[in-house]
Specification:
Layout: H1 3-6, E1 9-11, E2 15-16, E3 23-25, H2 26-29, E4 34-38, E5 49-57, E6 67-72, H3 75-80, E7 82-86, H4 88-92, E8 98-105, E9 109-111, E10 114-119, E11 131-132, E12 139-140, E13 150-155, E14 165-173, E15 179-182, E16 185-187, E17 192-197, H5 199-204, E18 209-216, E19 219-220, E20 224-228, E21 236-237, E22 249-253, E23 263-270, E24 273-276, E25 280-281, E26 288-292, E27 306-312, E28 325-326
Parallel strand pairs: 1-9, 3-10, 12-20
Antiparallel strand pairs: 2-4, 4-7, 5-6, 5-8, 8-9, 8-10, 11-13, 13-17, 14-15, 14-16, 14-18, 18-19, 18-20, 21-22, 22-26, 23-24, 23-25, 23-27, 27-28
């Protein structure tokens, strides 16, 4: 052992502020630089140059050129510790590999080395639920479905790639709770993959539901659940709410597409009162107009009126169709 080695004094190993566990997540840095923390320097290091060394090794076990940072030690570093910033690109270059960090202060102070691994903690992309183009929110109305059927859309975004086999599972449940299960398969397209659900099937399960999910490369997507029913178009005001004094206000239920025998009523909720119109029997595929007394809307300016229409449907005990509901 040489005299120089015999006189060598070892100091505490440095720490990476963002990798206290010994694992530096490059993705978590989000493009920012990272910091080396050095503590408990001896007082005889003051006014001497500290040289920090980063020695990275790639995922292919290629050792890169060392990176050095120099710093003149001052008294505050002795009392408070020292923080040295390293560039994000140093970690990026060795993602999947490792690095050794140490420092020395001439002539005879040297730290123990810190060994870290560098990972890319980018979350694995997750499958998205399928979409039904004709659905509004969580409801699918047969009147919005064209003759060629309802369109189920699955976008080709990670982890899906063009050419992957997609197995779609469709569970159609009618108003009695009887399920029909379909399992069509297709190859993922360049931008999206489209499946069709027959219009006749959608019409046959009015009062029921559709449940859709797909499987790809052994993974199953989140589930899309839709209720299936008519009459989901909201009511609208005809003209502006500035009728001649005393004239009724007309509210329209556009092109109602419910069932024969349905009866409709309008309700209006204001801060000072709640109003409900009398029922009228709906004419299928026609606008249903309701004239509301002007006095219902006499209220301070900027007041909001909430308008619903309510459907009363005769319940068939043999078929267990749903009763009254609101839109």
């Amino acid at each position: 052992m040489s005299t120089e080695e015999a006189n060598l004094q070892f100091l505490e190993k440095p720490e990476i502020e963002e990798a206290l566990s010994g694992e530096l997540d490059w993705h978590a840095l989000n493009g920012k630089n990272f910091n080396v923390i050095i503590k408990n320097l001896p007082s005889d290091a003051v006014d001497k140059e500290l040289k920090l060394t980063w020695l990275g090794t790639t995922s292919d076990e290629e050792e890169l050129d060392p990176e050095h940072k120099k710093h003149l030690v001052q008294w505050p570093d002795i009392f408070n510790g020292l923080k040295i910033e390293l560039e994000n690109d140093l970690a990026k270059a060795v993602v999947g590999g490792s690095a050794v960090i140490d420092y020395e202060i001439a002539p005879n102070l040297k730290s123990y080395p810190l060994d870290i691994t560098v990972i890319d903690g980018t979350p694995e992309p997750e499958l998205n639920a399928p979409e039904v183009i004709e659905a509004i929110g969580s409801v699918l109305s047969p009147d919005r479905v064209k003759e060629d059927g309802a369109t189920v859309m699955i976008k080709t975004v990670a982890p899906i790639v063009e050419g992957d086999e997609i197995l779609l599972t469709v569970v159609a449940t009618d108003g009695t709770g009887a399920p029909i299960e379909l399992k069509p398969m297709a190859e993922a397209g360049a931008q999206h993959t489209a499946f069709s659900i027959a219009k006749g099937l959608v019409e046959a399960i009015v009062g029921g539901s559709l449940t859709l999910r797909y499987t790809i490369k052994g993974e199953t997507s989140p589930t899309l659940e839709l209720s299936v029913d008519y009459g989901i178009i909201p009511p609208k005001l005809e003209g502006e709410l500035h009728p001649p004094q005393g004239a009724p206000v007309k509210i329209i239920v556009p092109k109602y597409t419910g069932m024969k025998g349905d009866k409709i009523a309008i309700s209006i909720d204001l801060p000072h009162l709640s109003y409900r119109s009398s029922q009228k029997e709906a004419s299928k595929l026609e606008d249903q107009a309701f004239e509301i007394p002007f006095g219902v809307f006499i209220a301070p300016l900027s007041t909001t009126a909430i308008v619903h229409y309510h459907v009363c449907r005769q319940i068939d005990e043999n078929n267990k169709r749903r009763g009254p509901h609101t839109h």
